[in-house]
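Input (structure):
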């Protein structure tokens, strides 16, 4: 089989590391086990000087500084693998007469099989609304939007997929989440408004979105699109389920008790033996014992207990029952407030913007 020849065109001369970083950023949306019927879920889509990766839940798009305009799809593992193996600083991309993507550097030339975008992929892109994302239609997000996502994500369940328990509810004024044992709510400042209509964002999508620090938002149909300061666009498919009215559960009576400052360090220390190591699956136990709070975690590799004395703190902590917590989340909450209010089987943390209430009798699922 004769090797395809390069076409004599103006070359891109792209910085290899910059291109690799763009591909790495979008890789989170690559689905190597795609069963969506869209073969390009395993491909990088290069379209209008942007690289896009798509799966049935999210799409990530980053700009490419290219002289040559390309509209094609290429297997993600192939292009990324070739670029990783090249050590030269600059590379060039061309499309050959035979319809292959030619990758060239000072020391390497590679030819990769590609496909055109096709009607199916164009319909997908149109359905997501990517061509409608005009600059003037983006709403600016509040500066604390990413912090709000982080805090509320911990109350969504990573296990109860396709239900409201597995999602964050966004409506342009605040964010809600609940796994039926815990409820989190973050209210934005009253002078901040961005247009979102009953968005249910899956926990997995929110977890990935947090990594990119979104600054702007736009909702088109069943997709919500975010953009950060580097012109990266993150698109997420919204879930079509009803989210319950949780406000009625956010009332609690009692005096706030101050937890010791050392508790946050203790919580971070026990993460190493959490049964679940993924961020939203972490688990630890917290109980009052002999005038101290004891944090503990145990898995099949080991066990750890950390004791925090209770000198010089408000009384009443001895009424705190043994509870199961996410240690990383609990430590994050303590960075905002150390005050906890307990009433019967309920406990609440509350700040000016953030509220978190939990059922203290929560059992392991």
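Output (sequence):
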């Amino acid at each position: 089989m004769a090797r395809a020849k390069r076409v004599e065109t103006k070359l891109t001369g792209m910085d290899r590391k910059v291109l690799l970083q763009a591909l790495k950023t979008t890789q989170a949306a690559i689905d190597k086990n795609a069963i969506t019927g869209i073969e390009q879920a395993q491909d990088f889509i290069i379209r209008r000087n942007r690289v896009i990766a798509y799966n049935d839940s999210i799409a990530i798009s980053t700009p490419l500084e290219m002289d040559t305009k390309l509209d094609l799809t290429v297997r993600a593992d192939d292009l990324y693998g070739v670029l990783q193996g090249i050590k030269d600083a600059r590379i060039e991309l061309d499309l050959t007469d035979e319809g292959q993507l030619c990758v060239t550097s000072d020391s390497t030339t590679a030819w990769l099989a590609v496909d055109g975008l096709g009607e199916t992929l164009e319909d997908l892109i149109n359905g997501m609304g990517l061509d409608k994302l005009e600059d003037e239609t983006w709403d600016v997000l509040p500066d604390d939007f990413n912090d709000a996502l982080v805090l509320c994500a911990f109350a969504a369940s990573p296990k109860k997929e396709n239900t409201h328990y597995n999602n964050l509810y966004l409506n342009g004024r605040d964010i809600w989440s609940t796994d039926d044992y815990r409820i989190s709510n973050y209210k934005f400042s009253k002078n901040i408004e961005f247009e979102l209509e009953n968005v249910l964002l899956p926990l997995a999508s929110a977890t990935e979105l947090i990594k990119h620090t979104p600054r702007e938002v736009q909702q088109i149909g069943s997709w919500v699109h975010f953009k950060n300061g580097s012109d990266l666009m993150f698109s997420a498919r919204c879930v079509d389920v009803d989210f319950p009215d949780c406000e009625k559960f956010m009332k609690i009576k009692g005096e706030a008790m101050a937890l010791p400052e050392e508790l946050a360090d203790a919580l971070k220390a026990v993460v190493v033996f959490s049964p679940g190591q993924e961020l939203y699956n972490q688990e630890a136990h917290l109980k009052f014992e002999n005038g101290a709070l004891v944090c503990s975690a145990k898995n099949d590799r080991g066990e750890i207990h950390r004791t925090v004395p209770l000198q010089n703190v408000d009384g009443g902590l001895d009424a705190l029952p043994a509870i199961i917590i996410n240690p990383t989340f609990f430590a994050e909450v303590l960075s905002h407030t150390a005050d906890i209010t307990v009433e019967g089987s309920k406990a609440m943390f509350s700040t000016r913007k953030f509220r978190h209430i939990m059922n203290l009798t929560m059992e392991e699922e």
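Notes: Residues 4-12 have pLDDT under 50 and may be disordered. The chain has seven helices and 24 strands.
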